[in-house]
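Lab notebook page, bench 4
Experiment: in silico fold of construct C2
Operator: M.H.
Input chain length: 173 residues
Purpose: comparison with the prior construct
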Amino acid sequence: MAAVCAATLVACMDHGADGTQPGETPPDEAQPQEMGFVTVQWAIEDRTEADQCKAYGAQAVELVLINTENNQVTRQVVPCQRFDTSVQVAADDYVGTITLLDDNGKAVSEPLAVGPFEVSGDEQTTRRVSFPAADQQRESQRERGTHRERGGQRDRESQRDRESQRDRDRGRR
């Protein structure tokens, strides 16, 4: 009797209820997501010297990658003077930014685009970016600030003109 029970047990173990063999994934179960690596390399003025980071006041780099399929965000912060980092992410399409940060985590550069690009499970993806010289970056930020100030001044002048015109119109009535 024990032999019959053992034979029956072995026969039942050969196939799952859904007809799969031991170790097979049933067709309705999700397959594990394929993963890949992206390496981002950065430079400042096309140079990879620690002095370049110091000129910016940059201690770190923030890399933000966004999966364009599901909007999942991957964020990594690494020392500036490494000048590269690798991240394992799901194989898919991505966009992203890279920004230089000071020792308080505050941005000391404009974010640079990293992508769009595709990550596959078969080969490593590499992206390269170069920040402008620190003095060019500061000059660019000052110019944008000046444009904003001029724009604000024009807005205030336009508002005063409209108010003056409204006052004149009221006086005619």
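Observations: Residues 4-14, 146-152 have pLDDT under 50 and may be disordered. The longest strand covers residues 35-44.
Next step: discuss at group meeting.
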